[in-house]
Amino acid sequence: MPAERSRRRWDEDDVRVRPNPRGSRPRTKERPVHADAVPAVVVAVDRGRCTCLLLEAPGALPAAGAPRVTAMRARELGRTGVVVGDRVGLVGDVSGQPDTLARIVRLEERRTVLRRTADDTDPVERVVVANADLLVVVAAVADPEPRSRLVDRCLVAAYAAGMTPLLCLTKTDLRPSREVLGAWAPLGLDTVSTHREQTPEGLRIAGLDALRERLADRVSVLVGHSGVGKSTLVNALVPTAERATGRVNDVTGRGRHTSTSSSALPLPGGGWVVDTPGIRSFGLAHVRPEQVLLAFPDLEPGAAGCPRGCTHDEPECALDAWVAGAGAGPAGQVRLGSFRRLLRARTGEGED
Ligand SMILES: Nc1nc2c(ncn2[C@@H]2O[C@H](COP(=O)(O)OP(=O)(O)OP(=O)(O)O)[C@@H](O)[C@H]2O)c(=O)[nH]1
Ligand SMILES: [Zn+2]
């Protein structure tokens, strides 16, 4: 009963977003009662205290060296939680001096919303990161073996969040990436790969340039199963991050370094990476078939003939006829298969 109640409460103030590939400017959700509020973005949340970076302009990305202000949510925001990536308005002491505290009086409407699922320790499905652009799905080609269902689930989470997915295959020094790419090839996913190599200076991660290019001037979130090399990547990308790397812990699914709070780290080349040590799975129960279909523009027109409320995975679904009539081109059948695989990945217990 309490879980059900809190979930409903959460849903009431939750922000609904539509995937917005063009990334238009966020609209203001709360009435701007505080005309003097200064724009900022939340880069870390720790027990109700938010570290915010002041912005030159409300829509801008923060500069790494922007003034840092600690702030608390004002009561007038109601129950709405503030998460990393939120764009906010601050009043009060915004000097950023030690022991000062500003107040968050405004929360801008979220352009993208990445959620994580309820779990044993927390029965409420929560927003983890707001306004991130790119979901980097990190999977190792080996050690640990790639888990296709988990990758599929991450992709669905990206589409549902309104974020662009990027597949990052790590450890290609252990096995050629083409051996594992087959499962995702029909999705036409943007993919990069990284590997470790021995240099006279020691071990280093190679292949980072392509990844850096994708991350530049965007806000990205790295997700992936424990041990795939996320911390190693973050350390290589953000030399000051110093995240602990560890062995795979098959029992807990976590590495040695576990922390529950997310934080955004500035990339030397511009842009931010959000480190979310807590995310191991996503809540996908809320994801509608239509949201996943948006990721398949070649199939989308075929759904015009579907019955109302079609799950797109039922005998009456018009997509089969559309594909059979070559409406989606020569790859239509394979694409439809991938679409339905992603739909099915939303539900059921298992791998993650
Ligand atoms: N062979 C090889 N090993 C790698 C590579 N990248 C990381 N590793 C190793 O893989 C192991 C796991 O790396 P981590 O960076 O800790 O993985 P993680 O995804 O952060 O894991 P958690 O912290 O448990 O979530 C470590 O022993 C790394 O040294 C790579 O490109 N090639
Ligand atoms: Zn249908």
Automatic annotation (TrEMBL):
It comes from Kineococcus glutinatus. This is Small ribosomal subunit biogenesis GTPase RsgA. CDD domains: YjeQ_EngC. The keyword GTP-binding applies. Keywords: Cytoplasm, GTP-binding, Hydrolase, Metal-binding, Nucleotide-binding, Ribosome biogenesis, RNA-binding, rRNA-binding, Zinc. Residues 121-282 form the CP-type G domain. Belongs to the TRAFAC class YlqF/YawG GTPase family. RsgA subfamily. One of several proteins that assist in the late maturation steps of the functional core of the 30S ribosomal subunit. Helps release RbfA from mature subunits. May play a role in the assembly of ribosomal proteins into the subunit. Circularly permuted GTPase that catalyzes slow GTP hydrolysis, GTPase activity is stimulated by the 30S ribosomal subunit. It comes from the Bacteria. Its cofactor is Zn(2+). Monomer. Associates with 30S ribosomal subunit, binds 16S rRNA. Zn(2+) binds at C306, C310, H312, C317. Residues 1-33 are annotated as: Disordered. Its EC number is 3.6.1.-. It is found in: Cytoplasm. Residues 130-280 form the EngC GTPase domain. Binds 1 zinc ion per subunit. GTP binds at T170, K171, T172, D173, G224, H225, S226, G227, V228, G229, K230, S231, T232.
